[in-house]
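Methods — Computational structure assignment.
A single polypeptide chain was analysed. Its primary sequence is given first, followed by the predicted tertiary structure written as structure tokens.
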Amino acid sequence: MTSVIRNNDGIKVFSGGANQELAINIAKSLGTELSIAEVGKFSDGESYVKIGEMVRGVDCFIIQPTSFPVNDTLMETLIMIDALRRASAGRITAVMPYYGYARQDRKARARDPITARLVADMLQTAGCDRVLTMDLHCAQIQGFFTIPVDHMLGNPLLIKYYREKFHDKKEDLVICSPDIGSVKRSRSFAEAIDVPIAIIDKRRPEDNVSEVMHIIGDVKGKKVILVDDMIDTAGTICNAANALYDQGATEIYACCTHPVLSGPAIERITKSAIKELVVLDTIALPEGKKTDKIKQLSVADILADAISRIHHNESVSKLFV
């Protein structure tokens, strides 16, 4: 993968406070270093940003997933965009590996807000010229923007990992969707590896509570990989894993792009039938969330390649076609 910036005089990569390790790795993949920016808080809790370099006419990229604490990281992003705009940056791209509030993308009940659209409006009002993100919870969120949105996919990284892991055991492998909403993602995953698919049919009686109903497909005596875009409290994925085990699956693996892992997630995963959970580093994992069951792969090279293509006005779609 060729992602090195061929002429880095006109580009600067900044990092917010949410995932500096990923930002450093992206800059390293680009063959450059992070530009100077100080991000912090005043004593009353207000966020502040100080840009430490000249950015006039420069192509600027801000690496910042809007993950926990989502309101703080989102505000940091908006303030950094505003600071760069007022410093006459040539173009400002928000690189948001994880787009917070993406699950609030429609009115599910009367008087519900559409917060994903509100976030899009805020980014554009602040002065953002382009957004680079990965695995939006709903791809139609791109339509909330009037600026270009490059939507990268995490599946290729995960597919590559499992192809290598099970290259000689494909006949025992099944890909499983933990719910109806993830069927499309799971089907493309299964087709890429050339194995069968199963589907968990579940009912969600209330937010963050899921109940498995039944399993569509044959999983008895099989190694099963559960595929999802994100894992939050881990109720859905752990219930699915336990149901698969009860139906005779011999080994259960799980993977996702975004490891939100809030509340009781780590405890649930530790106690569940999941043998290994593979996640991407779109969200930083603090020490308290790192366990022997969780393996993290990096999206740094993919995002660096996309940044390089954007900077050189080359096609980004080639990365996920």
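Note: Helices lie at 20-30, 70-86, 115-126, 155-165, 183-193, 235-246, 265-271, 300-311.
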